[in-house]
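Batch 3, record 17
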Amino acid sequence: MNANTSRFIKQANLIGGQWVAADSGATIDVMNPATGKAIGTIPKSGKAETARAIEAAAQAFKSWRKTTANERSQKMRKLHDLILANQDALAEILTMEQGKSFTEAKGEVASSAAYILWYAEEARRVYGDVVPSPWADRRIMVTKEPVGVVAAITPWNFPSSMLARKIGPALATGCTVVVKPATQTPYSGLAWGVLCEEAGIPAGVVNILTGSASEIGGELTRNPQVAKLTFTGSTEIGKLLMKQTAGTVKKVSMELGGNAPFIVFDDADLDRAVAGAIAAKFRNSGQTCVCTNRFFVQSKIYSRFVEKFTEAVEQLKVGNGMDSGTQQGPLIDMNAVEKVEEFIADATKKGGRIVTGGKRHALGGSYFEPTVIADAKPRMRFTKEEIFGPVAPVYKFKSEEDVIEQANNTEYGLACYFYTQDLGRAFRVMEGLKYGLVGVNEGLISTVEAPFGGLKESGLGKEGGHQGIEDYLDTKYVCIGGLGL
Ligand code: NAP
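Prediction for the assembled complex:
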């Protein structure tokens, strides 16, 4: 690790512009999943440190909200440039703590920079309205204002870009933030503190805490000074946090779990579908919320798809993310490996056929073989549950109506994908699928310009697109009377 990388590895929390330890001095070890070795430690902060960070953010809000959109936009452009100038260092940290390949990590860091630039541009377009008045002597204005202190909690699978989607709109609108990154991948989160300092973002505007999730989360969701909670993570924790915020009626944005279907119709371009299937399943070793959970393939093309898909899966290079050519790194930890094994055991017991993979990788640790399971059936556990690993179950279907029903038969509604060359079918299926993101003949669709967000129990609100800024704004109606017109 060179000096530029190590300067971003902060083993402290950022509260009101100070890098500090936990009050108790307690720390947590952070491990590299590729080697099983410790990278360093982080403070084990709790309720008291969180209350202080919220206070710091509330104080900073008083002046930050008064800066002009142009000033904030300039600072964010600087932040964007800094991220790109340090792309390799930030990607190295990401790979080290998370396990994804260096190429994917660089892509994630680039996406973080893109979100910051997007919101730097959007900052200057937070328009209100002047509404035709029903009264001759009054005028009606609708204005937009920053909500205030924002609490942000993020998961380990995209430890850099999930924060970009939250810090970006907060900074753009004039909000301040208290951030809690995932305990397994904290350094990519803490690095945001270094970057924000270097970009000249004032002390207290961005605060970052690590430690006890329930204590930090408890304070973030119950403290009345926090106006909004934005969370990315599991549906289970999202529901818990929504309940906790109810006591102080906070705004909430939730980016939760998924159970993405990937449908291949008989008329699909098979090679294109196979390439899309690899991207939509095996990115980040299957550990993304938009990763395909269920492949549905129409009966005529089923065998050929399984064959070609398996050939492509067998080409995937598994290894340490820092080794050149690696496409699939280790899973985040041994719990993830055990969970994947449970899904496979359940499927084989119920008639699933392992076509490739199916077991721990010869590299040891939390490496797992990319796996394809043919003859998947509705009664198998992954029909309902998020796999979050490199396992691709392939179901066979007969008709369009039937597959739409099966695809929608889940409480989730984040991403879905389908392949067809029939234009009429493309529209029917797109309109029939109850999902927030739809890839038609594409397996990788996330981009900053488009609104990302789930339906049903996959979440509330959008990140990215022009929609992404709205959740950070209060709408205020102003009636100006007595004008004597
Ligand atoms: P998770 O267990 O829900 O954890 C997410 C974050 O919540 C972590 O920072 C975690 O802290 C924190 N947390 C856990 N318990 C908490 C509590 N009681 N109070 C406050 N915070 C708490 O999810 P994960 O396993 O890290 O991530 C995987 C999940 O995220 C999957 O379901 C995936 O689909 C979803 N996800 C969704 C999106 C999206 O945009 N829709 C994107 C990425 C991931 P600790 O790390 O300290 O436990």
